[in-house]
């Protein structure tokens, strides 16, 4: 393996995104695994040559809709990236997010992607290598340190991601019970397959918001046959076909039919450790915007990717597309992997429903520091 890595460095084989690379574990061959390990140490900073970057946000803030007559500011939504267990978080409860609490916990609605199933089983240490994806898991104490600050929890956690089944049925059931205990709304999972086409609807400050969610895969894990509970799953990043958006579009339609003022698509997909999306993702995200999504927020690459402001063909909406917010918390020290984005969007209530008024993208980064004899991890503004 080390010889392949050295050759890749010397000859620059993987300085740009590898064409045809697999992202879903069951599709990955030896070269895909080696490419993944290489990227985890050397994130790919160059874009796909076919990518259209003309609509990418170049400033930290943007005004999408000026204040409308008869409109009032209704709520601020904060979106955070992947939340993954690190052993330095548990001893830092109520310290992890103290520098950014205003971004995550002093808002009307906060939404994150949670990737470490809560379990009562012995915890499994994370191992990064070419033997397959790492197993992610957390104790109840870890969970509280990862998702709360001074008793306030993130409001909505997306569970439709590739680690949701890492600890099997028990892990999924314990995670859902933990979310219920703390009043957190789960997104992306269902108790019966018929529910997979239904949006999760959240009513806050008079704004009815529909949440559509789907993951590209589950690292080859599945629940036992006959188990009705599951996760919203579709081939979103297959190397054999274009992204299958049918499930997400069905959820968007459900939100529309139920009179939602705002529709948010949460998409778990993409290529890890690449700083730009692939062109196929861009086309798919724009398709979701045309289908009715007002905000599209994506996860999985573990690095922050650009935010695009997409103007619909009808010209009636500008849809923010955050291709990857990165990982809010994890154990890696690489600067690109330790840096993520917290996206804040202000929504105004209008006579016609709701409209996005302002957008703010704040880069944050986790770091280690010593406190009370422990090495802890916390997140601060960059």
UniProtKB/TrEMBL annotation:
Domain (Capsule synthesis protein CapA) ranges: 76-332
PANTHER family (alphabetical): CAPSULE BIOSYNTHESIS PROTEIN CAPA, POLYGLUTAMINE SYNTHESIS ACCESSORY PROTEIN RV0574C-RELATED
InterPro entries the record matches: Capsule_synth_CapA, CW_Biosynth-Accessory, Metallo-depent_PP-like
Pfam families: PGA_cap
Protein name: CapA family protein
SUPFAM superfamilies given in the database record: Metallo-dependent phosphatases
Coiled-coil segments: none
Family: Belongs to the CapA family.
């Amino acid at each position: 393996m080390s010889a392949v890595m050295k050759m890749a460095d010397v000859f620059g084989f993987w300085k740009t995104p590898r064409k045809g690379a697999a992202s879903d574990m069951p599709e990955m061959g030896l070269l895909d695994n080696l490419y993944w390990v290489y990227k985890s140490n050397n994130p790919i900073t160059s874009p796909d040559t076919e990518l259209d970057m003309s609509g990418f946000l170049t400033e930290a803030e943007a005004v999408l809709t000026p204040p409308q007559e008869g409109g009032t500011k209704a709520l601020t939504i904060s979106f955070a990236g992947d939340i993954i267990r690190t052993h330095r978080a548990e001893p830092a409860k109520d310290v992890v997010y103290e520098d950014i609490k205003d971004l995550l916990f002093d808002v009307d609605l906060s939404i994150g992607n949670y990737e470490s199933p809560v379990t009562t089983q012995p915890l499994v240490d994370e191992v990064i290598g070419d033997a397959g994806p790492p197993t992610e898991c957390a104790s109840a104490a870890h969970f509280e340190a990862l998702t709360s600050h001074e008793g306030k929890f993130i409001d909505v956690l997306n569970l439709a991601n590739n680690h949701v089944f890492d600890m099997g049925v028990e892990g999924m059931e314990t995670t859902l019970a933990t979310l219920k205990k703390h009043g957190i709304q789960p997104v992306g999972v269902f108790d019966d397959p018929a529910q997979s086409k239904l949006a999760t609807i959240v009513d806050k400050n008079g704004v009815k918001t529909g949440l559509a969610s789907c993951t590209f895969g589950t690292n080859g894990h599945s629940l036992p046959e006959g188990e009705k509970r599951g996760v919203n799953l579709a081939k979103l990043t297959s190397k054999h076909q274009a992204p299958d958006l049918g499930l997400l579009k069905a959820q968007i339609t459900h939100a529309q039919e139920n009179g939602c003022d705002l529709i948010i698509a949460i998409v778990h997909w993409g290529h890890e450790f690449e700083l730009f999306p692939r062109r196929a993702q861009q086309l798919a995200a724009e398709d979701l915007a045309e289908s009715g999504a007002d905000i599209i927020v994506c996860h999985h690459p573990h690095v922050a990717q650009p935010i695009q402001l997409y103007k619909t063909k009808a010209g009636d909406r500008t849809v923010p597309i955050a291709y990857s917010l990165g990982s809010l918390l994890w154990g890696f020290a690489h600067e690109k992997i330790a840096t993520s984005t917290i996206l804040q969007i202000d929504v105004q209530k209008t006579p016609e429903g709701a409209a996005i008024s302002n957008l703010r993208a704040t880069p944050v980064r986790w770091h280690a520091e010593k406190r009370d004899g422990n090495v802890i991890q916390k997140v601060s503004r960059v």
